[in-house]
Every structure is written in structure tokens, then in C-alpha cells.
Amino acid sequence: MDIATIEEKDQLLDYIQMARDGIFTEKGIERTLKGIPLPYSKIIKEELGDSLKDNEEVKKALDQMEEKLESLKQINITLSFKPSEVFVKNIHRWLKKNLSEDIIINLNEDEGLLGGIVLSYNGYYTDLSIKKKLEELSFKNLSNGNI
Fold it and tell me: Residue 106: phi, psi to the nearest 5?
């Protein structure tokens, strides 16, 4: 499942509910899935696999998808700019590879950072922003009487 951000996760959860609502209706799951936009319908179809003909199996698979999404660990990332979708996907791919677990990004924007990144994950916090570096330099200069 290639979901990178909280927003994508929430959207997919909404579409899972939409699919679940369509299982036992006259419309059926296949027609319901056609009403869900790509890439979300593709993700759901891949997770359902060959179970599209058995409504109980579809419901079970959708429930498992929802549980998996809800259990994703979250990393908070703050940047000084709004990143492109490609940028976010690359960060997500790197995080999954280097943290060796499924993860979801909660992306925030703070122009006051001036550049760099602030990360918060699993009880750890790291501020690698330019703003933080400037504050440290100012404090060091003040402490040394250089200003």
C-alpha cells in the first residue's frame, strides 16, 4: 500500500468505507470501485485480490485494510515550504527503507523555519532548521559578549 501522508490515509479510509457501503447493495462492489478515483481504487483492488465475488471476503479484506492503515506509525515533518508530491514520495520511500517499517507522514509547513527540517518520531525530536541554527549562533555570541 503506497500511502505516504495522513491526508492520503484519511482519503483512503473514506473510500474504504464507500466500498464497504457498496458491498451488499444492488450496485455491488465492482461498480462501487469504479466510482472511486485512481489511485485509491487501484490500491483497494490490489488489496482485495481475487475476493471480489465473495461479499464476506471483501468485507473482511476491507476491515483488514482499515486496521492496517490505523496501525501505521506516524512521523511528523515540518518544512519551511510546501513540498511537491514527488518530494513527499521520495521522503516516504527513504523513511520506509531506513526505518524498516510502514510509516505515514504528518506534513506541516512553517515558513518561520527559513529552511531545513524538523522531525518528530517515536518520542524523538530533531530540529535541523536554519532558524534553530541562527538562534544557537545568536545565543553563543550573546554568551561570549560578541554582540
Answer: -100, 105
Domain boundaries, the chain: 6-70, 73-143
Model-level pTM? 0.82
Residue-wise pLDDT for 120-139, tens only, equals: 998 999 999 988 888 888 76
Residue 60 in 3-state DSSP? Answer: helix
> How far apart (Å, rounded) are the C-alpha atoms in residues 49 and 117?
39
* Distance in angstroms (rounded) separating the CA atoms of residues 105 and 91: 9
The CA distance from 13 to 34, in Å, is 16
> What does DSSP say about strands 103-109 and 124-127: parallel, antiparallel, or unpaired?
unpaired
d(CA 71, CA 87): 24
Angle formed by the axes of helices 55-70 and 6-22, nearest 10°: 160
